[in-house]
Amino acid sequence: MHNARPLILVAGMQYELNSFAAGTGDLARFRQFRLAEGDAMWDIAGDDELEGALDVAGRRGLDLLPIVLGFGGAGPVLTDATYDWFKTRILAGVEQHLSSIDAIYLPLHGAMATTSIDDTEGDLITAIRDITGHDLPIAATFDLHGNFTDAMARGLDIAVGFKTCPHVDYVDTARAAVEILADTLEGTVQPRLVHRKIRMMTSAEGHDTTTGPMRPLIAAVKDVEGVAGVLSATVQAPQPWMDIPETGWSIIVIADGDELVDRAAAAADELAMQCWQARNAFLVSRTPVEEALDRASLNVAGKGPVVMTDGSDAPSAGSYGDSAVVLAALLNRSPMTGPFLMTLTDPAATSHCVSAGVGSTVSLQVGGAFQPNFYRPVSIEATVLRLYDEPYRSTLPPGMLDPGRRAVVQVDGWLTIVLAERQMSTLDTKGYEASGLDPTQAQAVLVKSAGQFRGFYTDMASDIIELDTPGPVNAVLTDLPFVRITRPLWPFDDDLADPW
Question: Is the pLDDT of residue 396 over 90?
Answer without folding.
Answer: no
